[in-house]
């Protein structure tokens, strides 16, 4: 099987460069919010501020996901967050992380066409996270 290099920002730009992009963005953000609430809110909280019910059980406080752009000079760090959520490229030398490797988990759920479906899931979550950034 061939792995293709992931260029998340380029992939997102292509996704929204079609007619009806505003409607598509709303739909993707809505799907991303649903996926976020299902998979991420346990640790990061429904409001994405790092205060989910499992947060107290973790060694490191979950990141406040509403302030990612603020911590990056006002720009949402799309590629960095995409890689973090995907998790499959996490360097082993950095040790383990408490956050699940969603790229691996979601890819196993998909079966045929798994990589494309996985990237779709990741983009949904990314578009939602971008939409909730606070200044």
Please sum up the structure shown.
With 135 residues, the protein is mainly α.
What does this entry look like structurally?
The protein is mostly helical and 135 residues long. Helices cover 50% and strands 0% of the residues. It has helices at 8-15, 21-39, 41-44, 78-86, 102-110, 114-131. Helix 4 (78-86) packs across helix 6 (114-131). The chain starts with 7 loop residues before the first helix and ends with a helix.
List keywords for this structure.
mainly alpha, single chain, 6 helices, globular, 135 residues, 50% helix
User: Which outline best applies?
Assistant: globular
Percentage of β-strand residues? under 5%
Strand tally: 0
- Number of helical elements: 6
End-to-end Cα distance, whole Å, is 42 Å
Question: How helix-rich are the residues, as a percent range?
Answer: 40-55%
What is the residue-mean pLDDT, rounded to a whole number? 80
Instruction: Give the biggest sheet.
Output: none
Radius of gyration: 15 Å
Tell me the number of structural domains.
Answer: 1
What's the SSE pattern? HHHHHH
Q: Which regions contain 5 or more consecutive residues with pLDDT less than 50?
A: none
SS class: mainly alpha
């Amino acid at each position: 099987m061939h792995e293709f290099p992931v260029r998340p920002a380029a992939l997102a730009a292509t996704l929204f460069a079609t007619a009806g992009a505003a409607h598509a963005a709303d739909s993707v953000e809505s799907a991303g919010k649903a996926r976020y609430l299902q998979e991420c809110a346990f640790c990061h909280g429904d409001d994405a501020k790092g205060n989910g019910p499992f947060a107290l059980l973790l060694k490191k406080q979950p990141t406040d996901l509403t302030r990612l752009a603020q911590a990056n000079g006002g720009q949402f760090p799309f590629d960095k967050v995409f890689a973090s959520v995907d998790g499959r490229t996490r360097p082993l030398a950095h040790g383990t992380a408490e956050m699940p490797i969603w790229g691996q988990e979601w890819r196993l759920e998909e079966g045929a066409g798994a990589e494309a479906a996985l990237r779709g899931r990741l983009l949904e979550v990314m578009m939602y996270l971008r939409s909730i950034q606070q200044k």
